[in-house]
Amino acid sequence: DVVMTQTPLSSPVTLGQPASISCRSSQSLLRSDGITYLSWLQQRPGQPPRLLIYKISNRFPGVPDRFSGSGAGTDFTLKISRVEAEDVGVYYCIHATQFPHPWTFGQGTKVEIK
Amino acid sequence: EVQLVESGGDLVQPGGSLRLSCAASGFTFSSYSMNWVRQTPGKGLEWISYIGGGGHPIYYADSVKGRFTISRDNAKNSLFLQMDSLRAEDTAVYFCARDFSWELDYWGQGTLVTVSS
Question: How close is the nearest chain B Cα to the Cα of A73, in Å?
């Protein structure tokens, strides 16, 4: 099975400054259909996960444009251009593979304000 | 507006059973596959079960196969998870999540299941 490894596990950031989270997979995430299903979820304190970015770099409706995703193959990055207080939370990368075990999650990166 | 609301979480003894429900609204429920995902402090997020829009196919994670049963009632816009032979390691917050073309695009608020004597 694919293993998703996020770094760092914790990211203290100054308000207004950028933040970057890396997600590395143990094997290429490019599926046989030519699509890479690598997404990013945000989980604010006390809230459920929320889809931020899908298929590497597409923002889900309602997601601010300060969030961006990039990458290919085994290396992916989530960037927040200017961190705001509402961005505090845990961010997870998630990969959709094939059945019978379709979704694998990274271990999460906690973004907090310095 | 898409809404998913879980219920049924509780404190249960090891070996016991519990049935979780997820009430869906704001979309054509029968057109979407649905999932259960759980979250523990130690293991993070873990996908545990999938069901197609019409009730098939069905898949389970190895950790729950043979003990949990996913089902749905499209007439009532509801998703269910029957949990039997519960173990301490099943203690978690359980979320239902909608699948839109391999993306888990909407999640419920979650319901807490605690397995302890």
Answer: 18
CA proximity to A49, closest of A98, A114, A106, A102: A106
pLDDT digits (tens, 9 = 90+) for A35-66: 999 999 999 999 999 999 999 999 999 999 99
Rg (CA), chain B: 13
Inter-chain CB proximity B95 and A107 less than 8 Å: no
Note whether B44 contacts A107, CB cutoff 8 Å: yes
Phi/psi of residue A4, nearest 5 degrees? -105, 125
Q: Report residues of chain A scoring pLDDT below 70.
A: none
Residues of A in contact with B103 (CB under 8 A): 37, 39, 51, 54-55, 96
Residues whose CB is less than 8 angstroms from the CB of residue A55 and which lie 6 or more positions away in sequence, other chains included? A35, A36, A37, A38, A39, B103
CB burial of residue B13 (10 Å; 0-12, 13-18, 19+)? exposed
Taking an 8 Å cut-off on Cβ atoms, the answer to whether A99 and B57 are in contact is: yes
Q: What is the mean pLDDT of residues B45-71?
A: 96
